UniProtKB/TrEMBL annotation:
Gene Ontology CC: cytosol
Domain Shikimate dehydrogenase substrate binding N-terminal, first and last residues per copy: 12-95
Protein function: Involved in the biosynthesis of the chorismate, which leads to the biosynthesis of aromatic amino acids. Catalyzes the reversible NADPH linked reduction of 3-dehydroshikimate (DHSA) to yield shikimate (SA).
Catalytic activity: shikimate + NADP(+) = 3-dehydroshikimate + NADPH + H(+)
Active site location: K71 (proton acceptor)
InterPro entries documented for this protein: Aminoacid_DH-like_N_sf, NAD(P)-bd_dom_sf, SDH_C, Shikimate_DH, Shikimate_DH-bd_N, Shikimate_DH_fam, Shikm_DH/Glu-tRNA_Rdtase
One Gene Ontology biological process: amino acid biosynthetic process
Protein name listed in UniProt: Shikimate dehydrogenase (NADP(+))
Subunit (UniProt): Homodimer.
Family, per entry: Belongs to the shikimate dehydrogenase family.
Length: 287
């Protein structure tokens, strides 16, 4: 009797990880593309990330998505084979085992840019305000620059952290023809407003918006929150009250970064649209 070939094995690793939608997303991508795989949630102890990763790949795993709080550890673990995006981001969210070695990439920024484009944002020549100076902000700098943004200003409650973020990204190889600026939250305003304002903080998890000044938005501007939920986030409500023409949350970014990981692993680009529609419907039903 011929034994069926083992399914390709993938997982998302984090702590906590029970809430992750990645298994559902990648299973839908696999159905689209006709790829037989198994994708699961892989919890790791806070002090057990490296051992869990090594065991996963030793047992035949092909790829891992990495979520909080392990993206920096994943960066260190794959430090010998990092993509340019991962080096600039200073973090890894996608691990691959190829040719007997571990490779690290960061697909968060690509996921953001693809969703902004899906929403109709014109990024070529755009003036972009990036709120927050943590890993989420740094991870999207290079893809925003690659998309042709003319100005990217990073603002943060602590202005020094915004400056440090840009300095760190430049030192890691950031290639950016855009004008890069850094400042505090009160320095978020600019004459004529911003074309795109991105909340890269976790403020919406506490149902709070960053302490931003008013009159931030240019005509037809888009306000984008990396967080997502069943209802508009606090940042989205703040932006709408301040005159943003369009507001969106980060569910599409989640699907977009997963699509890029899927492409890195399989060489096939799935269609994010039906997956996003399914997740949005489920999220609304949950809320």
């Amino acid at each position: 009797m011929t034994q069926a070939p083992a399914l390709l094995h993938y997982a998302v690793i984090g702590n906590p990880v029970a809430h992750s939608r990645s298994p559902q997303i990648h299973t839908m991508f696999a159905a689209q593309t006709g790829i037989a795989l198994r994708y699961e949630r892989l919890p790791a102890a806070l002090d057990g990330f490296r051992d869990t990763v090594r065991r996963f790949f030793h047992d035949g795993g092909q790829g891992l998505n990495v979520t909080v709080p392990f993206k920096l550890e994943a960066f260190e673990l794959a430090s010998q084979h990092l993509s340019a995006r991962a080096r600039v981001a200073g973090a890894v969210n996608t691990l691959s085992w190829r040719d007997g070695t571990l490779h690290g990439c960061n697909t968060d920024g690509v996921g953001l840019v693809s969703d902004l484009q899906r929403l109709g944002a014109r990024l070529m020549g755009a003036r972009v305000l990036l709120v927050g100076a943590g890993g989420a902000a740094r991870g999207v700098l290079q893809p925003l620059a690659d998309a042709g943004c003319a100005t990217i200003r990073v603002v943060n409650r602590s202005p020094g952290r915004a400056t440090e973020l840009l300095d760190g990204a430049r030192a890691s190889g950031l290639s950016c023809p855009a004008e890069l600026q850094a400042g505090g939250l009160p320095e978020a305003s600019r004459p004529g407003g911003w074309d795109v304002v991105i909340n890269a903080t976790a403020s919406s998890l506490q149902d709070q918006a960053p302490a931003l000044p008013s009159s931030l938005y240019a005509p037809d501007a888009l306000a984008y929150d990396m967080m997502y939920g069943a209802r508009p986030t606090a940042f989205m409500r703040q932006a709408q009250a301040d005159g943003a023409a369009r507001c969106a949350d980060g569910l599409g970014m989640l699907v977009g970064q997963a699509a890029e990981s899927f492409y890195l692993w399989h060489g096939v680009r799935p269609d994010p649209s039906p997956v996003l529609m399914t997740l949005r419907t489920e999220l609304l039903a949950e809320g």
